[in-house]
Amino acid sequence: xxxxxxxxxxxxxxxxxxxxxxxxxxxxxxxxxxxxxxxxxxxxxxxxxxxxxxxxxxxxxxxxxxxxxxxxxxxxxxxxxxxxxxxxxxxxxxxxxxxxxxxxxxxxxxxxxxxxxxxxxxxxxxxxxxxxxxxxxxxxxxxxxxxxxxxxxxxxxxxxxxxxxxxxxxxxxxxxxxxxxxxxxxxxxxxxxxxxxxxxxxxxxxxxxxxxxxxxxxxxxxxxxxxxxxxxxxxxxxxxxxxxxxxxxxxxxxxxxxxxxxxxxxxxxxxxxxxxxxxxxxxxxxxxxxxxxxxxxxxxxxxxxxx
Length: 307
What we know:
Structural class: mainly alpha
Oligomer: single chain
Number of helices: 8
Strand order of the largest sheet: 1-2-3
Mean pLDDT: 85
Helix content: 55-70%
Order of helices and strands: HHHHHHHEEHE
């Protein structure tokens, strides 16, 4: 028994480290692309290469933040940090999405100026460097794809990398058009398209992470339904003072006061509590409960009370 336990423990531990290791590889790759594209962008005069580089640099930053967050979220809770670092990843997603939006707006401004006064661009360099971007980002995307499905932080990293890969494809097409048809206006147009896409992606993530940070009730949960479900249980008179919030992606907390019809024993309360726990977990996926039992207490019976 003891043996199997330690085995499962080491197994989960390995998976966690893999997440960190994969992020580390992607950070390294992205630093290389960024440097190459910045130098290439300056030499060739291509704004779309520079915008791709900026995109990659924002990747490096966001991946580093995600990496630190992944490490932090594994730390144990302690006396002065009772939740541990479980929200580190949410903050990472928040910071990433904000920076993404700011960077994009700067790019659009540059591109519009460039569109008004087109500049001749050395296209061979653009073509080779965009290919480098496609290969490196493609590899990175495959590395962290699995974790991105279950984790907001890894999803933000994954989106960064995926948009990068698409941006590099666009830059490649632009480079080919410039090389064979001398269409230099393609460069700023691509820059603007890449930027608009970034704002669109960033905004969604910004919204989700803000909801969690502001302790808003998760979208999927209806407070009235929770109240109805709990009130159905025998000997419960009403439910009030309800708070529902998300600690991080996997943990939803519920706090409420429950008024009882009669002055029951603690042992009876425990049985009822078990029933409540079961109901809210199965119906709403709420894993942490904090219930205050009351009998004939004079306080506000409103479901939502603003302190």
